[in-house]
Design goal:
- With about 150 residues, the protein is an alpha+beta fold.
- It is built from three helices and nine strands; from the N terminus they run E-H-E-E-E-H-E-E-E-H-E-E.
- It has helices spanning about 20-40, 85-90, 120-125, and strands at about 10-15, 45, 60-65, 70-80, 95, 100-105, 105-110, 130-135, 145-150.
- The strands form three sheets. A five-stranded antiparallel beta sheet has the order 1-7-4-3-2. A two-stranded antiparallel sheet has the order 5-6.
- A hairpin with a 4-residue loop joins strand 3 and strand 4.
- The two termini are about 20 Å apart.
Length: about 150
């Protein structure tokens, strides 16, 4: 259940100028972190070394959530700045004040937890009796249900 290959997710995509791309990368990371903070899931952010990044990335942050049953963190998302790699492939440019066309920078990363990540709640919110406490931030979407017990 840890690795699923088909699921729906919300992807953050930003297109920016080269001088703003690293700041935008940090902003996108903070958006992804905010979701985890509101859900009160323990997590950490890891900056990947070049050997672990995708070939299009200039810099990548992995976001990992703690799984108490496994006594380890597991990656749930990556936020990457791709520089002008994707822009060159699609010929996406902008024209700054000097009038000379330049390639934009692109960034991307999933920002929301999807159905593929339900096990994060199960692992982090499971009670002694086997029930799972619904995180407070999700109760308004669950009709006020505070916990899910055995059928």
């Amino acid at each position: 259940m840890i690795r699923q290959h088909q699921f729906t997710k919300v992807e953050l995509v930003s297109i920016t100028t080269p001088d703003a791309s690293l700041a935008e990368h940090d902003r996108m990371l903070s958006c992804a972190e905010e979701v985890l903070k509101r859900l009160k899931l323990p997590y950490r952010v890891v900056t990947l070394c070049t050997g672990d990044m995708g070939f299009a990335s200039q810099k990548t942050y992995d976001i990992e959530v703690w799984l108490p049953g496994q006594n380890r963190y597991r990656e749930i998302s990556s936020v990457s700045v791709c520089g002008d790699f994707q822009a060159r492939r699609m010929n996406a440019r902008y024209r700054p004040g000097d009038g000379k066309p330049r390639f934009v920078h692109t960034l991307n990363g999933p920002v929301s937890l999807s159905a593929a990540h339900w096990w994060l709640f199960w692992k982090n919110y499971q009670n002694q009796d086997g029930s799972v406490t619904v995180p407070e931030a999700l109760r308004c979407y669950m009709g006020g249900i505070e916990s899910i017990g055995k059928a």
